[in-house]
Amino acid sequence: TPVQNDLQEYFALV
Amino acid sequence: MFEARLVQGALLKKVLESIKDLLNEATWECAATGISLQAMDSSHVSLVALNLRSDGFDKYRCDRNVSLGMNLTNMAKIMKCASNDDVITIKAQDDADTVTFVFETPNQEKISDYEMKLMNLDTEHLGIPDTDYSCIVKMPSVEFQRICRDLSQIGDSVVISCTKEGVKFSAAGDLGTGNVKLAQNANVDKEEEAVVIEMQEPVSLTFACRYLNSFTKATPLAPQVQLSMSSDVPLVVEYKLEDMGYVRYYLAPKIED
């Protein structure tokens, strides 16, 4: 089953 | 001093309805160019980014940038006090700890004002890189809403597969499976009924139904929705506000464990 990824894996905190 | 007046006050009510499912609180950043908001949901899976340009307001004054941190549940309670045909004005003093909402009936015979306490919120601002997406699908927003609603009855996730022929939405669960295919169809009488696909390369991505359904709360804002997808990057679901700006949602894909 696919698991939900986190947005912060893709976008850097600025 | 910040003051923004919107004759079409219903638009502001709809904007709030489109975000309050995902966000309990958020900071409205007010600047001379307009009002913007960026916030992640509490689980850090999705992000809302919206922009209301100053020239879309009937009157707009922003002497210096102000950040208005609001509890959106409370803001929604106040917005419910405005009728759909009311003119809405948002006002705040520089460094104020309250914001005032003024609702005027079109004939000016009833004027209500509500003052709401502001919050100091720690905002985590994310830098979203410009991306050339592999597939961009434009489709009727009510169709997208319908598909998300229907497929969420079948499973928790929707697989969106896009080729240049069309876009397919699929769900699977204990009861079985469901697939909805939409063909590209630009030759329609009304522009808002078109399904248009711009494809560089095919993509297939899995997303949680729950979030897609929350995004479709923005359906009353725009007749069309735009889905931007590339492999292994968040989906962008965009509703354009006519002459005003946009509401965008970003959703991280589900990935194989």
Number of extended strands of chain A: 2
Average pLDDT reading of chain B = 96
> What are the segments of chain A in which pLDDT stays under 50 over at least 5 consecutive residues?
none
Radius of gyration of chain A: 10 Å
Order of SSEs of chain A: EE
What's the story with the biggest beta sheet of chain A?
Answer: none
List the helices and strands and how they pair.
The complex is a heterodimer of chains A (14) and B (257).
Chain A: E1 2-4, E2 12-13
Chain B: E1 2-6, H1 9-19, E2 25-31, E3 34-40, E4 46-53, E5 59-62, E6 66-71, H2 72-79, E7 87-92, E8 98-104, E9 111-117, E10 126-127, E11 135-140, H3 141-151, E12 157-162, E13 166-173, E14 176-183, E15 196-199, E16 203-208, H4 209-215, E17 224-229, E18 235-241, E19 245-251, E20 254-256
Helix pairs in contact in B: 1-2
Keywords:
heterodimer, A: 14 residues, mainly beta, rod-shaped, B: 257 residues, nine-stranded antiparallel β-sheet, five-stranded antiparallel β-sheet, 4 helices, 14% helix
Description:
The complex is a heterodimer of chains A (14) and B (257). Chain A is 0% helix and 36% strand. By secondary structure, chain A is an all-beta fold. Chain B has four helices and 20 strands. Chain B has helices at 9-19, 72-79, 141-151, 209-215, and strands spanning 2-6, 25-31, 34-40, 46-53, 59-62, 66-71, 87-92, 98-104, 111-117, 126-127, 135-140, 157-162, 166-173, 176-183, 196-199, 203-208, 224-229, 235-241, 245-251, 254-256. The interface between A and B is medium-sized, with 14 and 24 residues.
Short account of what is shown:
The complex is a heterodimer of chains A (14) and B (257). Chain A is mainly β and 14 residues long.
